[in-house]
Amino acid sequence: MLLNQFLVLGAALFAFGVYGLLVRRNVVLILLSVELMLNAVNINLIAFESYLVSAQAVGQVFAIFVITVAAAEVGIGLAIVLMIFRNRKSANVDDLSLMRW
Amino acid sequence: MSWEVDYLAIAPELIIIGSLFLVLGLDLTLPRLKKYWTATAAVAGSALALIPLAFLAVEGETISMFDGSYVVDEFALVLKGLFLVTAYIVFLMSVNYIESERYYQGEYYLLLLASVLGSLVLASARDLIVLFIGIELVTGPLYLLAGWRKGDVKSNEASLKYFILGVLSTAILLYGMSVLYGLTGEITFSGLAEATAAMPNSPALTMAVLFLIVGFGFKISAVPFHFWAPDTYEGAPTPITAYLSVNSKAAGFVAMLLVMYLALPGVSDVWAPALWALAALSMTIGNLSALRQTNIVRLLAYSSIAQAGFMLVPFAAAAVAGADLEEAFSATVIYLVIYAVMNLGAFGVVIAGARTTKSGEISDWAGLSNVDSRAAVLVAVFFFSLAGIPPLAGWFAKFVMFRSVMIAGGAATVVLAVVAAVNAVIALYYYAKVVKSVWLDDATREFPGEFDEPPAGSLRLALAISVGLTVVVGFFPALATFVADASRVIAAGG
Amino acid sequence: MTFSDWIAEPVNWVFAAIGLAVLFSGFRVVTSKNVVHAALYLVGALAGTAGLFLLMSAEFVAWVLVLVYIGAVIVLFLFGIMITRAPTGLDESLSSDQTAMPALLSAAVFVVMTWASIDAFGTELLATVGEATSTQVIGESLLGRFVIPFEVVSFVLLAALIGGITIARRDLTPVEEEERMSV
Amino acid sequence: MVGMRALVIAAEEGGHGAVEAGTGGFWADTAGIMLVLPFVAFLLILAFGKRLKYKGGELAVGALAINLLWATVLFVLNMTGGVLDQTTFEIARIGSDLVFELGWVVDGLSIMMYFLVNFVGLLVFIYALGYMEGDVRVDWFFAAFSLFAGAMLVLVGAPNLIQMIIGWEGVGLASYFLIGFYWEDLDNVRAGNKAFMTNKVADVGLILGTILVGVAIGSFDFSELSIAAAEHAEALGAVAVAGGLLLFFGAMGKSAQFPLHIWLPDAMAGPTPVSALMHAATMVTAGIYLMARVFPLFQNLAQDTRGLMVVIGAITLFAIGLLALVADDIKKVLAYSTVSQLGYMMTAVAAGGYTAGLFHLFTHAFFKALLFLGAGAVIHAVHSNNMSDMGGLRKEMPTTYWTFVVGSLALAGIIPLAGFWSKDEILATLGHEGYTAVMWIAIAGAFVTAFYMARAVALTFHGTYKGEGHPHEAPRVMTAPLVGLAIPSIFVGILNIPGVDWPGIGNFTEWLGVRVVPMGDYHPEGIDWSLAAIGLVAAGAGLALGWLIFSRDRATQKARDRFEVPALYPLLRQKYFIDHAALGVVGATTGPIARFIDWTNTYIIDGIINLVGGVVKALGEFVYGTIDQRAVDGVFNGLSAVTDGAGSAVRRLQTGRVQQYAAGFVAGALILVVVFVLIV
User: Fold this and answer.
1) A-chain residues within 8 Å CB-CB of B161?
2) Topology of the domain covering A3-96
3) Residue of chain D with shortest Cα separation from C97
4) What is the bridge-based pairing of β-strands D85-94 and B70-72?
5) Is the peptide bond before D416 cis (omega within 30 degrees of 0)?
6) What pLDDT digit, counting tens, does each position of A58-79 carry?
7) Measured in whole angstroms, how far is the alpha carbon of residue B306 from the centre of its chain?
8) Of B83, B224, B322, D267, which sits with the fewest C-beta atoms within 10 Å of its C-beta?
9) Partners of residue C53 in chain A, C-beta under 8 Å
10) Which among B24, B137, B206 has CB closest to C152?
11) Chain D window 208-247: which residues touch C at a Cβ cutoff of 8 Å?
12) Are D7 and D223 in contact (CB under 8 A)?
C-alpha cells in the first residue's frame, strides 16, 4: 500500500471538516466537523507510523493522545452549547454576533 | 529501559497538582459560605510552587528526563517563574471578582490551576507530544472559564468563539505536527533540529512549519489568527481576560520559541519571513484597530495584538544570514516578561477602576483622577509603560526589540524596524488617550460605584506587585536581562 | 508503481472500498440536512477509519477509536442533539446558504495538502503491512517514555469533566438557593 | 569609581591637547545628589504636599537650593582648575559587550548645565511661590515641576545615550503634564497633546539614532563615542551620517527647529513659570545640549550633512523670528523669539561653533527666563496675555519694567549686555566657517529680534493703559527673582570676551573645553570688531524702528479712537498715515514674509500635521472597518448579494460571526502556505 493513498484520504477528510466548520449553522454540527479534521490527523499519524516504524510506536501513541484530547474537547464544546442554549434557546451560531466592530 | 524521574525537578508541577486536589477537596466539603478557602489554597499553591523553583535555580543544573523530552533548565525555570508569578497575580485579582458574584469559586480555581499546570509543562516540553498536551491543558480550561459568567450572553459568545477557533487551530497544528513527524521520524526537538538541518526545503516541510505557526499564531493572537481575541476579551470575566492576554499568550510564545529556535533552526528561511509578515500585520492592524476603540478592554485586546506583533519582530532577524539567534531569542523573552507584568497591571487597574466607573467605556472613565487618584496614577503608569515611555519597564522591552533587528541588519528587518517605530508612535496615541481621559477630561456624570473605600487587599497586592515590577524593571533592566542570559543558554543549543 | 501494479494487490481493493465509504460518510457529515443522520454518518466515517487502522496494523488504536468514539463520543453528540432540541427531521437551514467561499477554501486546503504530500512521499510504500504493532509496545511507551504527557492528559480530561459540568448545569434560582442555604 | 578609569584612559587616548583637570573630589563624587533630590521632593510633595503651607513649594525650592550649592561649588572648581569625573553604576548587561549604566558625568559642559538648571530653576521656583499662590492643584504643579527638574538633571548628567533618553522622556512627560495644567480649558489639553505628539515623532529619531550609534560603536557611553568619532571617523562613515542625522532629528523636536517648532508656541498654554523654565531656559535647549554632547560625531560629518543642519537652524532663526512681529499675545512673542534663538544656537553648533552655541545657550537662559517672568508679572497684574490690553505699565510696575528692559536689550544684543557677546560669537563663527550667506541671515535675524522686542516693550509698558482694573507691582517674592536674573543678564557676557583671560579663572571657553575629547577649536580668534559693529548696528536699527512705530499707542488705539473720538479721527488717521509710511519700509519687506510664514505656519504645517493625522486616522478607520471587520464579510456578502435580498445583505454587514473569523483563519493559513511554498 502506498503511503500517499492514506495521506490523500486524510487531506480530503480534513478539507470536509473545514467546509463543515465554515458552513454549518448548528454548533453541534460544527463540532462534528472538527471531529472529522482530528480524525484526518489520526489517519496521517497512523500512516506515518506504518511507514516509519519507530521503536516506541510514536505515531500510534500520538494518535491515542489526539483521540483523548478530542474527546475532552467534545465534552467542553457540548457543555458550552448547552450553556448557550439555556440562555438563548438556540444553538445557531448566526445568532451569536453580539460583539463586533 | 528504565525511566528515572527527578521529583525535585517536577516539584513545582507536583505542588500545583497538590493544590488542585486540595481545591477539589475543599470545594466538596466546605459549606457554601466558606468557599473562599479554595481561593486561599490556589493562591498559596502558586506561591509555594515558586520555592522549589528557587532551589532548582540555585542548583543551576540542567535536568533532562525521558529521552530529553522533558527538560528543566534555566530557560524553563525562568518561564515557570513567569507563569507562576503571573498566575499568582491573576488569582489575587480573581478573589473578589469571583466572590462578589455568584460564580462557582471552587471549580474556577481548579480550572485555572489546571491551566497553570499546562503552562508549567509547556515550559519544560522538548518534544511535540508534551508540547501539544501542554498547550491543550493551557487552553482547554480557558474555553470554559471564558464563559464563566453563565448568565451573560456576551460571556457565552466569548467562550464559543474562542472554542471554535481554538479547535480549528488545534486541528491545523496537529496536521502540521503529523507531517513533521512523517518527514523526519522524530518528535524530540533535538532530533527534529538534526533532521531538518539536513533536509532540503520541500512544500511538505514548508507547509508543516507554517501550520505550526498558525497553531501558535492563534494562541498569541497574531493577525490574521486574532479574530477571536477582541470578542473573547470583551466577553470573558476580566481576570480571565488578563490571564488570556498574559499567561496564555506567553504560553503560545514559549511554544513558538521552543519549536522555532530549538526544533527548526534549520528552516529559519521559512519561518522567519513568515513571522516577519505576521509581525508587520499584527502591529499595524492591531494598532489601527485600537485607535477606534471606545471600550477599554477591547482597546487592550487590540493593543495586545499589536504587542504580539512587537514580540514577533525579533523572530524576523533569524532570516538574516549569520544573524545572532541568541539575541533575537532573548529579545523576545525579555519583551514577553515585561509585557506580562505591565499588561497584568493594566487589567488589574481596569478591575480596580471599574469598581468606581461601573463601565468599560473610556468616556465613562473621564475625570477618574478627581475621585480616585491612586487608580488614576496606576492607569498612567501602566498605559505609559505599554506605550514604551521611559523609565517604565516597557521602554526597555521596545529597546531590546529594536536592538535585536538593528544588530541583525538586512534590508527586510530594517524595514520591519521602521514599521515597528511608526507603530510605536501610533500606539502612543491611543494609550495616551486613556490617560488623558482619566486625568484631563471632566467627568461627564456622577460615578455610580464606590470610591471611598480602597479595593480589596488581594487586588491591591496584585497591583502593588505589578506596579513595583514595572517601575523597578524600568530603572534596573538588569532584572530582565537576567532572564535574557538564562534564555541565551538555551538558544546556544543547551 | 503504476496503477495496474497497485490495483493488483488485493489489500488495495479493501482500502478502496473502505476509503470510498469513509469519504462518502465524511461528505455526508458536513452536508446532511438531518442532524441525527449527520451524527450517524460520523459513526460510519469513524468505523471506516478504524478499518483503515487495521489495514495499517494499528490494532490497538483502531479499538481505542471504536470504543472512545463510537462508544462514548457519539452518544454524547446524540445527547447534545436531543437536549438542544435541534430539529431531528429534514432541515434546510442547518447550513449557511453561502457555500461557494467555504467550498473554495476547503478545496484549496485539499489541493495544498495533497500536493505537498505527493511531492514529499511520491510512491513510498508502507513498511509494516501484516504485522500488528504489539499492544505491549504501546503500553510500555505510554507508561514509560510518554508517562508525563499521559499523566498530564488526565488533567485535561479532569478539567473538561468538572468544568463541563459546572458550565452546563442549570444554576439554582435565588429562591431555590435560599431554601438550600436554610437547610 | 568605575567610570573614572574609563575617563582617564579616554583622556590619555585623546592624545594631543588632553585637558589637565582635577577630579573634583568630594563634590564630583557626590554630584549625583543633584539628580536625586528633585525626585525625592517630587515624591514628598505627592505624599504630603496638600498639608504643607506652600503646598509643597518649599520642598521644591529646598531641593533646588541644596542642588545649587553643589552646582556652584563645581562651577567654581571648574573655573579655577577644571573638573573631569564620571561615576557610573551598571544596571544591566546584554551579552558580554553591551552594558547599561546610570550615573553622572562632571565636566565643563555638564557643570555649566547643572549651574544653569539649578540657578534659573531655583529663581523660577521662588517666583512660582508667588505666582501660583491660591491656584488650584498647586501641589501637583510643584510636584510636576520637581519631576521636571530631576529629569532635566538626569538628562544633563547623563554619561551615556540611554540615560539621556530617560531624562529626555522624563522632561517630555513633565512638560506634557504642565502644559495641560489648566486642563479645564480644552485648548490647553490639545496643546499638551500636540507638544507630546510632535516630540514623540522626533523621539523615534533619537531612539533609532541611539541604537544605531550604540550598536556601531559597541557602547552608549559619550566618552567612548567621542573617542571613536574622533579617531575612527573614516571607519564609521555611513553609520555616523545616519546616526548623526537621526540624533539631529530628535534634537529638532525638543529644541523646536523648523518644521517641528509648532508645538512650542502652543505650549505657552501652561503657567508662565513653566514657560520660563522649561520652554525657554532649559528643556528646549536639550536638543542643543545633545548636539554638544555628541559634538565629535558631528565634527566629523560630511560638510553637506552639516550644511543641512545649518540651513534648518537658519530658517528657524529668521523665519520664526518674523512671526514674533505679528503676535499679540506677549507669551507668544517670547515663544517665537525662543524658537528663533534656538535656531541661532543650532546653527552655531552645526557650523562647528561649539563654544559659540553653548555660550548663547548660557546667556539666553538668563535673559529669556527673565523676560518670561516679567511677562508673567504683567499677566498676573492685568489678567490678560494680550498686549492690546496692556500699555503704560512702567509707572505701576517699575521693577518689572526695568528688568524687562534689561532682558530685552540683552536679547536684542546691545553692548555690553550678555546677548551681545554670545550673538557676536555666533556671527563670527558663521563667518569663519564659511557660511557667509547664513551669517547675513543671522544679522538680519538680529535686526528682527531687536525690532519685536522694542515692539513688545513699547506696547506693554509705554503709551496708555488699555486694560481693565488697576494693575500693581507684583509681590516681593516675584520681583526678587526678576532682579536675580537681571544681574547675570547684564554681566555674564563678559565671561567670554574673545581674547580676554580673567585672572585666576580664565574664560568661559576654557571651562567648557574640559572634556574627554577636547574640542578642536575652542580658542576663538580675537574679536571681530567689524562684524560686531554690523551686528550692533542691525540691532540698534531694529530697536529704533520698533520704538518709532509702536511707542505711542498708535497702532493699537486706532480702532478705539475711531469710535470714541470721532472729531479727532481725521487727524489720527493722518498720523496713522505716517505710521503706514514708516511701516511701509519694514512692511514691504518683512510684513508679507511674516504674514506668509504665519499663514504657512497656520495652514501648511498645521495642515500637513492634520493631514497626516487625518490620513492615519482614515487609514485606521479603513483598516479597522474594512479589512479587519468587513473584508471577510465583504467577500461573503459579495457572493450572496445576488441570491439574497438587500435587507439581508445589510444584516450580513454585521459581523462578529465566528465562522467568518474561521474563514479568515483558514484563508490566512492557506495564503501563508502557498506564498511560502512558491517563494522558498
Assistant:
1) 96
2) Helix Hairpins (1.10.287)
3) D640
4) unpaired
5) yes
6) 999 999 999 999 999 999 999 9
7) 13
8) B322
9) 46
10) B137
11) none
12) yes
**pLDDT value at D633 more than 70:** no
Please count the CA atoms within 13 angstroms of the CA of D337 that sit on its side-chain side.
36
Chain-chain contact of B277 with D196 (C-beta, under 8 angstroms): no
Q: Is D504 exposed, middle or buried (0-12, 13-18, 19+ CB in 10 A)?
A: exposed
* pLDDT one-digit tens code per residue, B195-232: 998 888 888 999 999 999 999 999 999 988 888 888 89
User: Which is nearest to D340 in space by CA: D436, D273, D419, D429?
Assistant: D419
Q: At what angle do helices C147-168 and B128-146 cross, to 10 degrees?
A: 10
Q: Which chains pack against A, by 3+ Cβ pairs within 8 A?
A: B, C, D
- Nearest-Cα distance to chain A for D643, in Å, is 16
Count CA within 13 A, CB hemisphere, residue B62.
Answer: 17
Q: Please judge whether A97 and D629 are an interchain contact, meaning their C-beta atoms are less than 8 angstroms apart.
A: no
**Please, which pLDDT band fits residue D649 given cuts at 50, 70 and 90?**
very low
**Cell (9 digits) for B129:** 507530544
Rounded to whole angstroms, how far apart are CA atoms B52 and B15?
9
Q: What is the ipTM of this complex?
A: 0.84
Contacts of B411 in chain D (CB under 8 A): none
Q: Contact B336/B312 with Cβ under 8 angstroms?
A: no
Reported residue count of chain B is 494
Give the chain B residue nearest D619 (alpha carbons). Answer: B288
Q: Report which of D429, D457, D416 is spatially closest to residue D546, judged by C-alpha positions.
A: D457
Strand blocks (E) in D515-661 = none
Rounded to 5°, angle at Cα D428 from D426 and D431: 110
Q: What is the mean pLDDT of residues B247-251?
A: 94
A72–C contact, CB cutoff 8 A: yes
What would the pLDDT profile of C164-179 be if each residue is shown by its tens digit?
Answer: 988 888 776 666 666 7
